[in-house]
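User: quick one
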Amino acid sequence: MPKRKKAKGKGNITFFAVLLAAAALVSHFTGVFTLSDLKEVIGVSTSNIAEGEVQVHYIDVGQGDSELILSNGHAVLIDTGEKEEGEKVFSYLKQEGVKTLDCLILTHPHSDHMGAASYIVDNVDIKNVIIPKLPDDKVPTTKVYENFLKSVKKKNLKLTAAEPGLKIDIGEAELEIISPVSDDYKNLNDFSAAAILRHGGNKFIFTGDNEKNAEKDILEAGYLERIDVLKVGHHGSKSSSCKEFLEAVKPEYAVISCGEGNKYGHPDEEAVKRIKKYTDKIYRTDIDGTVIMISTKDGIKPETEN
Amino acid sequence: MLIIDRFEGKFAVIEDGDSHFEIERSLLPDNACEGDILVKNNEHYEIDENAAEERRKKIIDLQKDLWS
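Assistant: Done. Structure below.
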């Protein structure tokens, strides 16, 4: 387990009333899918989480993304990082006491998000695998994608299409898929399955690598709301975190998942400036290591590895 | 096999067997897309359209029975 340090003088967020959260849930209920579409998962995961608490771990996987959501008896992994990070993510799951993943969600099929998916599917008990369903002409040809599919087949798992409105019960929290809202994109980043996690009045958004076009489409589709913790889109690249998106989510905290000294210039200075309009509480996995956000009824408490 | 995994700013990220590397996007033909398969010809890269089409078809076939 990473040595956790307390937040560097960063206060807790305001806790929203349960009534407000309930109202938000109702207003965003689309009813497209229900949990009955997914396999029964209650009680199959084991994790070291206190009752009433939800943790989101932004695992330091270098230049890539991997987020672990833990609730009492439940675990969901969003993305796996590059192929080389497979053993690290596997060990991380083990140290957190995760025996079964309720869901593995792959936001989109780029290697920095799903390179280790084959390894994780091979080595971890998984109940559901959720990925965006791409048009045929956008289906990846890479070996990492082919290997992931082969592993899914070998384990007799099925793929569930990430579609807005799909809701996943994670113990005391609920995760709602909010994108892709269109199948007409050129870039695979824009097909990213974004999701909002709601725990009491605390809200987290996971953005994958959605860029400006997709961010605006999600906004126009009415899926955005005020968010407490933003997983910054596309590692903080300049093509994501557009001002309209940020204005809608108004993050209290932001987490950027990127590799130390990466050659893509992530995070982009201008993107960080846009985020700073809303918050100075910006965490970076290249600096802070693994970042953990602990959600309780009293608000959100950040911890970092470094 | 050299396969374009993605573009990151001025770079293209190329899957090369079990590893990957980056090249300047400017070294690729203008119409290069994610999923294209490349053939290196001296210092230039060319797109092998048939190879990508064949491989995509194989992966779509593998995937189609996996949807729930």
